[in-house]
Design goal:
The structure holds two protein chains of two kinds. By secondary structure, chain A is mainly beta. Chain A contains nine helices and 54 strands. By secondary structure, chain B is mostly helical. Chain B has a two-stranded antiparallel sheet with strand order 1-3. A two-stranded antiparallel sheet of chain B has the order 2-6. Chain B has a two-stranded antiparallel sheet with strand order 4-5. Classes of the chains: A mainly beta, B mainly alpha.
């Protein structure tokens, strides 16, 4: 084991450069890891196989690359070390960053870790860096919400751990945990997605991302690691010789993938086959495409009183949404080679979203300093300042304020631009509908404003002191502080809230994380070695929220907080702390057997009370091992280059993250009564002083194989985990004085497999083809909800015909909703008028989370050209589409074309009674007087959620990059050291998709309730150019 | 090696494990402890109640079942003996969520070991607590009592339902102990006690008056106990004038908690009319035009809306379709509604128990057992007088003159041969808008004699309901205890009779 908290430099340093080539064909090897042994100091080779690294005198360099045997060389006095690497048996000794920033050889690990380099994250940059991991890591399920460029993505590792709690992983940046609070999201009644903590990390600063998937990998993080850990290491200056300047830019155009929406354009606005005959009629049926066939009448009157031709006016989505742009500039200055190495970077990311007026700007400044402060003492400082401004985050889900809702539903004969700019002569909303809750999309886009500004400081400092070769001490502290100011305006003159409202919110989030670690690394004899460390951690979190709400503007159109009739305010401060002691001991025997034991004890402030007698601490152990059986093979040149088995067991915990649950809070009524103050118990939820963190146990086994001289690598993992004593909200009798409480009653199990296959089918002098395929399957089961096995609803969709529920015996978050009433033979039961009946019992209609996820990445290199593309896919889940449900009622869904001309005949049964459970055969033909009602939601199929459940399966052409590197020979006499140019694209098209009209990934929030869809942004594809130059 | 030990020591000192965690976990967003005063004031306002439960249980169900009010609106379920789960369960829901939570919190604070609050404060809380539970029990029968409201203090999440007989027994003991412990002079609650301004003597009188109410409630099921407790109550000292009435003064706002819940319901609901039964009784009664007046609508522009002769009651059990056929009217403008000048105000007082009610109970006790001096007529006269005079608490304009009272008594003298009916019909007339009490007293005595309606779709076979159904959420959130109680008390339907309401 190697401690990598600081660079262990205590002697003179020197710079070593060189070129790494493939011994077989003399081709340069890009992406080779070059690491100074026993340190975290490392770099990777560029496209031409070149590297440069500063190392201390007497250092040993370790060159590692997947599929090749690792080379170790003493530096001595040389300044140039060129290496030819051989494909060989020791292919999997890549160094991996593991828990607490500790670098370890992959082969020693008893659990699965996936590490991605900076290339993977920044090859095609996205506004939310975490989306770059999509499809790249087996076992990690990333789902971006359809909420715009500033939105949140759901990241789940090996299935969810908690039935109702937070299931996102712990994020660690440069050794310290960061805050990942969700700052606001849409619910069934609408809203905007205000992003989370990870979404503001700058992809250009990332050096590597390590995903600790299992409990054994994460156990050292204790109570916060139940959902896995993602460790981000940022770029530093250590690999630079002298001064280096790098400039990178990427410009992409973002446009709505209008092909996804496939609504009918044969029938126009109207009702019961008739076009509107008056303005009022048009306003009463704004989104009703139940008129006559387009072209069958000459013209019709529209919402604004204008008579227009009754013809298809073309794609309204195309007209409403604009072509967005994302422009990213990064300038980085690095200096290395002495006692002081640093990298400073500044990034400006500017996004204009496809929804008009919606824009995001993020400026990131980053400074990483590494210095040898004194003999045996190194100091690393990482500081990051992020300023994020987002204007007009799009509203999604319910109709009010949601432009996406209206834009999708305009009839084909009404040109959406006639509703522009959405403002009537008196400055109020121009109505397109007599239902005031149906917004003019231009009013929504132009006048519904949100402004938010986030100032974030994310920094850490690490000191390392080396007492002896085998003993060192590291101290590290970090702070993540965000100050967020948000303004949300419902404008004056909005039809449903004529006098408007304003919310002003200030949130300050601070997380401080500090560690002290003592490291021991001792070889006992030739074969046995011990690697151990013991540490302590203190983590404090503070969230301070001040909200002011004003409603009813007094002076029209003056939308400021002082201009309101009614105002209210609230302040919430949440503080908590966790203290921990931890340790890890790893024993190794001759590169053949590795055994690692860890333990951590956490103390929680949230479980500490003055009168508290129960435990406020928890202990988490893990044990894991690795057996490199290929070491025992007689014939080293056999087709197995490397083979090993690994296994691990762990216990971690989670939850207990809510402070102040041990005492009753009292509410004070400021106004009093007749001069007397008023106070009462402020909660309807019983604070449960006996709450404990839930516990999650996991076992995993794995197999690593490297075959055929490393041309083929296979990594398999099987895991099984169980979350016990999960904290669930339980309905209790009101006669207790309260209506619910939190109890440790839930249980959730997951088991699954992960597979990673890497291969190099072609490798010759000029051409190289690498491919990597990952596949994972996770099967979850809700084992217990509460003492009587009641369903727990974890989220609704606006139609309320379906929700996301935890149902005992079912997978996590099933879609639970209304279904057709059927007789025992399965026939649909109709009433006498030909309308289907609804089963009085709601049913499990689908799985909200796809169990199968996979990704296929291909990279082709030919001379200076590089083509890579990523295809990813998910299978096995379902989605309830509220959009399609509304499109049925609106007569826009293509399905509603059935029966318009000659009637729709439905067959099933009717008159089902207790005596005659199968009912009588029934046939009914709906003509145009009842067809609209049949497809509608009050008495027709619209209220039956089952009708709108589709498979959420998809195969997406996720990412494309075609790059060219200007040959070094061309630049030889210039001051430029390299130029890279590429064409990039993301989310270009669907190769396959089942659900009609929607992006099956596109939920309206990134919370636990997945598989529910209702009018988010349509899918957006991006393409553009990326340019990188180094001086 | 010494150095290593030093380092290990530093490591442990660094976390100091959980030092300071208790302080960190003290809630900065809310008070975590409160003096009893503000809690009592808030709890009293909760007992008076919000629009939600007063609208649903007191008005929509009770006032129409007891035929003070009638309406054609279909959702007024009590007018037509239909079942509406939300309306039926509302009082249960709010009693426990608001009133019980507040009173049990106070009780636990004031009875905590070593607390330094004077005993009289606990006595006051105990009396108010009995008022809360007696009201909810009189509506539903067996209810959670001994284990109720202890979700936080005792971790009881699913309280059992206690038999009403046991609840009554305990409530009577509570009243006895609490009243005995009360002295005279101001209590330490002071003005936070918005019922009696801290006057211990008045609490004592109310405690005994409640005891008398509970005693008489047992008259059908246990006459001996009824007499025993009535004797005790009278000996302990009940209310002696309108100065002793237990009521809460409300204000126009600013929030719901400050307003009269009935008043808020009337502000939102123009449907209620005085029942024909009630208006017929109030003929030649000076209360008629205090209680009611014609609505202020265009159709009545040229009519004296406050003249007794213009008042007309609406028959119960009608809807929009049957209104014209039964009454000859197309709309409700010619029917008397609760007087919007006095009775329906959001700042109207809310009465928990009046002196008039006490006098009628004393009259009944005199008739039955010769108690209270044995002079039923004197108590009847005092009751009628008090019932008319107390209306001035609604508004000075609602004052009924002494002359009008005497004239009424002269026309309606005490009639010893029909005493119980006369007394309890007056009790009914005096409890307008305290309809939960009015309904309970009707179930106890059968007076006034009411003619039930038989509206299509009613769930009582055309009989006046004997109870309301429990809050529906209990079926799932307290399933075992719910099953247990319906096994004991009988089906959870509107016609099931509770313990004291034997045939």
């Amino acid at each position: 084991m190697v401690l990598t908290f600081g660079q262990k430099l205590w002697a003179q340093t020197q710079t070593v450069t060189g070129t790494i080539t493939d011994a077989e064909n003399r081709m340069p090897l890009p992406g080779v890891t070059v690491l100074e042994k026993n340190s975290s100091n490392g770099t990777t080779t560029d496209f031409d196989g070149n590297y440069s690294i500063n190392v201390e005198d007497g250092a040993i360099l370790v060159f590692s690359y997947v599929g090749f045997s690792t080379v170790e060389l003493s530096v001595g006095s040389q300044n140039t070390i060129d290496v030819e690497m051989n494909a060989s048996s020791e292919s999997l000794d890549e160094v991996i960053v593991t828990a607490l920033g500790i670098g370890r050889e992959r082969k020693s690990l008893g659990y699965a870790v996936t590490q991605l380099n900076s290339e993977s994250v920044s090859e095609v940059k996205t506004t939310n860096a975490i989306n770059s991991l999509q499809g790249k890591v087996a076992g990690v399920n990333i789902t971006p919400a359809s909420t715009g460029a500033g939105g949140t993505s759901r990241v789940i590792i090996r299935g969810a751990s908690s039935l109702t709690g937070n299931n996102n992983p712990l994020y660690v940046v440069d050794g310290v945990t960061i805050d990942n609070s969700q700052l606001g999201e849409a619910g069934p009644y609408g809203g905007s997605d205000f992003g989370d903590g990870i979404s503001s990390i700058n992809p250009d600063d990332i050096a590597s991302v390590s995903v600790l998937k299992g409990g054994a990998a994460a156990a050292l993080y204790g109570s916060r690691a139940s959902n896995g850990v993602i460790i981000i290491t940022t770029k530093g200056g250590k690999n630079q010789q002298g001064l280096g300047v790098e400039y990178a830019t990427q410009l992409t155009f973002d446009e709505v993938n209008t092909g996804v929406f496939d609504f009918q354009n044969q029938y126009g606005q109207g009702s019961l086959g008739l076009a509107p005959v008056s303005v009022n009629d048009a306003l009463d049926n704004p989104f009703s495409s139940w008129g006559p066939r387009l072209g069958s009448i000459a013209s019709s009157i529209q919402f604004d009183g204008v008579e227009r031709p009754y013809v298809d006016t073309g794609d309204n989505l195309d007209k409403f949404y604009r072509t967005g742009t994302t422009l990213i500039h990064t300038l980085a200055v690095t200096k290395g080679g002495g006692d002081l190495n640093y990298r400073f970077s500044a990034t400006d990311l500017n996004n204009e979203d496809v929804v008009p007026n919606s824009e995001l700007n993020r400026k990131s400044f980053s400074l990483n300093v590494n210095s040898i402060a004194a003999e045996k003492l190194t100091v690393d400082i990482s500081a990051r300042y992020i300023v994020e401004k987002v204007n007009n985050r799009p509203r999604v889900s319910d109709a009010p304020g949601n432009a996406n809702y209206s834009a999708a539903l305009f009839p084909a004969n009404v040109d959406i631009r006639t509703a522009s700019p959405g403002i009537a002569e008196d400055g109020t909303e121009q109505l397109i509908s007599s239902n005031t809750f149906t917004q003019n999309p231009y009013w929504a886009a132009n006048r519904f404003n949100t402004f938010d500004r986030k100032n974030r400081i994310l920094s850490s400092a690490t000191l390392n002191y080396k007492f002896f070769d085998w003993l060192d001490l590291t101290a590290r502290a970090g702070i993540d502080h965000s100050a967020i100011r948000t303004t949300i305006i419902e404008p004056y003159g909005t039809a449903y809230i004529p006098l408007g409202s304003i919310t002003e919110r200030e949130v300050n989030i601070t997380q401080v994380d500090a560690d002290v670690i003592l490291g021991i690394n001792k070889k006992i004899n030739e074969k046995f070695a011990v690697d151990a460390f013991f540490g302590a951690n203190k983590n404090t979190q503070r969230n301070d929220n001040l909200t002011l709400i004003g409603s009813r503007f007094v002076i029209p159109f003056l939308e400021i907080l002082s201009n309101v009739e009614n105002s209210s305010q609230s302040r919430t401060l949440n503080e908590l702390a966790i203290s921990s002691l931890y340790g890890s001991v790893e024993l190794s025997y001759d590169d053949l057997l590795f055994l690692s034991v860890t333990g951590r004890n956490d103390w929680f402030s949230t479980l500490s009370g003055l009168d508290q007698s129960s435990e406020n601490s928890e202990f988490y152990p893990s044990v894991s091992g690795s057996f490199v059986f290929s070491q025992l093979l007689e014939d080293q040149s056999s087709w197995i280059s490397l083979g090993r088995l690994r296994a691990g067991y762990s216990e971690v915990a989670g939850g207990a993250q809510t402070p102040y649950q041990l005492t009753l809070p009292y509410q004070i009524f400021g106004q009093g009564h007749l001069g007397n103050p008023l106070g009462q118990v402020a909660t309807s939820s019983v604070p449960n002083p006996n709450l404990t963190p839930f516990s999650k146990e996991e076992v995993e086994i794995g197999l690593d194989l490297s075959l055929f001289s490393n041309r083929l690598g296979i990594d398999l993992a099987y895991y099984k985990n169980s979350t016990k004593r999960d904290i669930v909200p339980v309905d209790i009798s009101n006669t207790s004085g309260y209506s619910n409480t939190l109890l440790n009653l839930g249980q959730l199990d997951n088991k699954g497999i992960e597979m990673l296959v890497t291969g190099t089918p072609i490798r010759n002098e000029n051409f190289r083809w690498n491919l990597s395929y990952n596949l994972s399957y996770n099967e979850s089961e809700v084992v217990a909800t509460d003492e009587s096995g009641n369903n727990i609803s974890i989220g609704d969709v606006r139609t309320f015909d379906a929700n996301s529920s935890q149902v005992v015996g079912q997978p996590f978050g099933v879609i639970f909703g209304t279904a057709y009433l059927r007789n025992p033979a399965g026939d649909i039961v109709y009433d006498a008028s030909g309308f289907p009946l609804v089963d009085p019992e709601r049913k499990v209609l689908g799985e909200g989370v796809s169990p199968w996820t996979m990704g296929l990445n291909n990279t082709f290199s030919y001379k200076g050209f590089n083509l890579s593309f990523l295809i990813d896919a998910k299978f096995g889940g379902q989605v309830y589409s509220g959009t399609n449900r509304v499109a049925y009622g609106a007569g826009l869904h293509k399905e509603t074309l059935n029966g318009r001309e000659n009637g729709l005949t439905v067959t099933g049964v009717t008159n089902v009674t207790e005596e005659n459970p199968n009912g009588e055969p029934f046939t009914y033909t709906h003509d145009d007087t009842t067809l609209q009602t049949y497809y509608g939601s009050n008495s027709g199929v619209g209220r039956i959620a089952e009708e709108f459940i589709g498979d959420s399966d998809f195969i997406k052409f996720r990412q494309l990059s075609l790059g060219y590197t200007v040959p070094a020979s061309v630049l030889e006499r210039t001051f430029i050291s390299s130029i890279d140019l590429s064409i990039v694209g993301r989310n270009l098209f669907f190769i396959h998709k089942d659900a009609d009209n929607i992006d099956p990934e596109g939920g309206f929030n990134a919370g636990n309730a997945q598989g529910l869809e209702y009018f988010g942004l349509p899918p957006v594809r991006s393409y553009g150019l990326s340019f990188n130059v180094k001086f | 090696m010494k150095r290593i030990f030093q380092i290990v020591f530093i490591l442990i000192a660094f976390v100091a494990c959980d030092e300071g965690f208790e302080e960190l976990n003290e809630n900065p967003n809310a008070a975590t402890s409160l003096e009893p005063g503000p809690k009592l004031t808030a709890t009293i306002l909760r007992v008076s109640g919000d629009r939600y439960e007063n609208w649903r249980a007191n008005l929509i169900y009770s006032s129409t079942m007891i035929q003070h009010i009638a309406t054609t609106a279909g959702y007024w379920a009590g007018d037509k003996y239909t079942y509406n789960a939300q309306y039926s369960g509302a009082w249960f829901e709010r009693t426990y969520n608001d009133q019980v939570k507040g009173i049990e919190d106070l009780r636990s604070q004031l009875s905590a070991e070593g607390n330094s609050y004077p005993k009289e404060m606990l006595s006051i809380v105990r009396i108010l607590r009995v008022h809360i539970y007696s009201k909810v029990s009189d509506i539903y029968g067996d209810v959670p009592y001994s284990e109720a409201g202890k979700g936080f203090t005792d971790g009881i999440f699913r309280p059992k339902y206690d038999p009403q007989s046991e609840i009554y027994a305990d409530m009577l003991n509570e009243l006895e102990e609490a009243t005995v412990a009360l002295g005279s002079g101001p209590s330490q609650f002071g003005s936070a006690d918005i019922i009696f301004g801290g006057d211990q003597a008045k609490w004592k009188k109310w405690g005994n008056s409640l005891m008398l109410r509970l005693a008489l409630r047992m008259i059908k099921v246990d006459p001996a106990a009824a007499q025993e407790w009535a004797t005790k109550a009278i000996a302990g000292g009940v209310m002696t004038s309108n100065e002793d009435i237990a009521y809460v003064v409300h204000t126009e706002g600013p929030d719901g908690i400050n307003r009269n819940g009935n008043g808020q319901a009337f502000s939102a609901d123009n449907n209620p009319r005085l029942s024909e039964t009630f208006v017929n009784f109030l003929q030649n009664d000076p209360r008629l035009t205090v209680y009611g007046s014609l609505p202020d609508v265009e159709a009545n522009a040229n009519i004296d809306r406050f003249a007794p002769e213009n008042q007309r009651g609406l028959p119960n059990g009608l809807d929009g379709a049957s209104l014209p056929t039964v009454t000859g009217e197309d709309d409700l403008s010619s029917f008397t509604e609760p007087n919007r000048n006095y009775m329906t105000s959001e700042s109207a007082p809310m009465f928990f128990q009046t002196y008039a009610e006490v006098e009628f109970m004393l009259a009944e006790s005199a008739v039955r057992w010769g108690l209270a001096g044995g002079d039923a007529q004197a108590h009847y006269n005092a009751g009628v007088t008090a019932a008319m005079k107390y209306l001035e608490l609604y508004s000075p304009q609602a004052t009924i003159s002494d002359g009008a009272v005497s004239a009424y008594l002269a026309e309606n003298p005490f009639n010893a041969t029909n005493a119980l009916e006369q007394i309890n019909t007056q009790y009914w007339a005096a409890t307008f808008l305290n309809d939960v009490e009015s309904w309970a007293n009707w179930r106890r005595t059968g007076f006034p004699q009411l003619t039930s309606v038989n509206y299509p779709g009613n769930v009582t076979n055309g009989t006046i309901p004997r109870r309301l159904r429990y809050f529906e959420r209990e079926q799932t959130s307290n399933a075992a205890n719910y099953q247990e109680v319906i096994g004991r008390q009988g089906q959870d339907v509107l016609t099931t009779r509770m313990w004291w309401d034997v045939q």
